[in-house]
Amino acid sequence: MFCNVLWSSKYLEWNYKVCNRVCSDHSPYIPRPKNIPFKFFNMWCAHPSFRDVVQQSWATPILGHSIFVLTQKLKRLKGVLKRWNRDVYGNIKAKVERESQILE
Questions:
Q1: Within a 10 A sphere around the Cβ of 81, how many other Cβ atoms?
Q2: Cα torsion for 80, 75, 10, 17, to the nearest 10°?
Q3: How far is C-alpha 88 from the geometric centre of its chain's CA atoms?
Q4: What are the distances in angstroms from CA 92 to CA 2, 34, 43, 52, 96?
Q5: How confident is the model over 28-76, as pLDDT tens digits?
Q6: For residues 2 and 12, which has the higher predicted lDDT (pLDDT)?
Q7: Is the pLDDT at 9 greater than 80, yes or no?
Q8: Helices 50-59 and 66-89, axial angle in degrees (round to 10)
Q9: What residues does each domain of the chain span?
């Protein structure tokens, strides 16, 4: 895929990933949106600090109409849980890739 600065500035919500070379001297370029869906991991519920993290995020007040408050609290909680997951569990994808390379 080819793009230039004009295209990048027009489509700000798009991001890309450059993959490893497979059989040529070019690397695949895979565009992907920045708004990747949020994933909830059931293992979070078993962690002792999970409930406190959620309660603390949810307890912080937001002013406005009830549906606005709900959407803003959910948006904030999404960011809090992403950071918490990274701090508690680390980069799981990188760990899996590293362990896969060791097994090879």
A1: 19
A2: 40
A3: 15
A4: 31, 19, 13, 22, 6
A5: 566 666 677 888 889 999 999 999 999 999 999 999 999 999 999 999 9
A6: 12
A7: no
A8: 150
A9: 1-36, 37-104
Tokens of residue 45, six digits: 């519920």
**pLDDT-derived band at 81, boundaries 50, 70, 90:** very high
**Contacts (Cβ under 8 Å, ≥6 apart) of 54:** 77, 81
**End-to-end alpha carbon distance in the chain:** 31
**Burial letters for 39-69: b for 16+ Cβ neighbours within 10 Å, e otherwise?**
eeeeebeeeeebeebbeebeeeeeeeeeeee
